[in-house]
């Protein structure tokens, strides 16, 4: 019951919001209540999964391997909690950011369809269902971007739609391929098939195809140009949502595929991950340095941070995977709050071009302080949460003697610090530009308060590293133990795995 | 069966070629071909339907049933592909209406 509610609540909310008149004082309240409800539920799911049990729900009573099963394990529940916290904060922030009359009517329902999609990606235990959930997510993101694409911005939308369309057909191709090859779509059945199968050319081809699909979504090296092109047309709260969630959902699918479904540590794909991660890190941060608006800089940083995670997944040791998960959680929270707090300065000056800003710290002291805190965390200064993920990844890289990747990672980290401080110094520090004095709106104060949840959680992640490391390590250990996953999913099935 | 795979291969090749072109109409047809190629691939995983009964339970045929799952999957895939391509058509139309061009280089030149 608790499992299916993560799909039903957002869908119901979206439908209710579609039928509510605008402007209505209840629209945003209903949205926030629904997300808060799910946040609490995901906390409960996390608590239930804590001892290694999984929450399993068989849709319509159809038993695996034939029916669709929804599975929440520790990894899923962590990602659910993290992503719902991002949704909650971004929605709360958007209450103060945009006036209801100026907001497009369909944006709020579309956000909830997006939420249903991301939640379903996180809880599904069926490969084709994963495809459908992914498409749900993409379709709503097309909708949200289309609402913003007025006038000349249509070309930015076109690059997003074209590349993701190609990606979805490739995903479908993968689903067809895996069904033709194994005769199954259930993830546990697939896992058991690939375990018996071992290495084969088809497994490699499937793994490579799926790596391309996911890589396109998360924006690794040759496939990232659409991301900084399309995200900056969104308002800050939605940009934060997209930056914090969509690419991290891609990371979830990557881990789920290469840890649960496919044989662990497929040699060629692993090497390609490391090879592609290096230019991803470097070019992402170089792109950020070359840009001069807040949204573009932060969007490029999404790419360079994804490079770290893909590199860690490519090394494929328990410690590096733990670091990857830790880094993903850190990134979801920190990246979102950076967008939100930089957005406060952006709204104050009514522009996001850095040259026309300056001296916001005098009027917005807390926004400046929190932005600096999260910026230092993103750059990886101890004891903030970004340091630990990076430290573990680089330590594993040194242990694996990948000197080039380690050098690039350290360099990237240093340049991240540089470009984050560039934003801080030009937006918050200094005297300010007399031509653009900025206007103080009372709502900015509430926006600072709205982002506090993310600040507290990301600080907790960093300062409580002993606990957060233990939990993520446990989640990765559970993911790596495929046999337990298969047994738990098939525990209530009378049909069993068959031959 | 061989013919099906040949058709799928041809459609994918043509689709990929057309997607890589810089005219909007060619790109659209490319996506259509590509999506239908993937749908055919899904269909082909249901094995050859020659001499095999459709999946209706009381018929009790000698040679067995066609696998019904790919058909269900295709239905979903067609709906999703259709919706996305419809969205793309509207987007292309809007670009065309704004610039009166369908060449992407021209469009980007004008939309700067």
Question: What does this entry look like structurally?
Answer:
The complex is a heterodimer of chains A (499) and B (112). With 499 residues, chain A is mainly α. Chain A has 20 helices and two strands. Chain A has a two-stranded antiparallel sheet. The longest helix of chain A is centred in the C-terminal third of the chain and has 32 residues, at 318-349. Chain B has 112 residues and is mainly α. Chain B is 69% helix and 0% strand. Chain B has four helices and no strands. Chain B has helices spanning 2-19, 24-44, 69-99, 104-110. The model of chain B has no long low-confidence stretch (mean pLDDT 86). Classes of the chains: A mainly alpha (499), B mainly alpha (112). The interface between A and B is medium-sized, with 27 and 30 residues.
Give structural attributes:
heterodimer; A: 499 residues; mainly alpha; 20 helices; B: 112 residues; 4 helices; 0% strand
Main sheet: strands, sense, barrel of chain A = 2 strands, antiparallel
Beta-strand segment tally of chain A: 2
Q: What does the largest sheet of chain B look like?
A: none
Task: Output the helix-strand order of chain B.
Answer: HHHH
Regions with little confidence, pLDDT below 50 for 5+ residues of chain A: none
Q: Helix/strand-derived class of chain A?
A: mainly alpha
The overall pLDDT average of chain B reads 86
Oligomer: heterodimer
What radius of gyration of chain B results from the CA coordinates? 19 Å
Q: What is the 3D shape of chain A? A: globular
End-to-end distance of chain A: 31 Å
Q: Give the amount of beta strand of chain B, in percent.
A: under 5%
Spatial strand arrangement across the major sheet of chain A: 1-2
Mean pLDDT of chain A, to the nearest integer, reads 90
Largest interface: A-B, 27 and 30 residues
Percent helix range of chain A: over 70%
Report the order of strands and helices of chain A.
HHEEHHHHHHHHHHHHHHHHHH
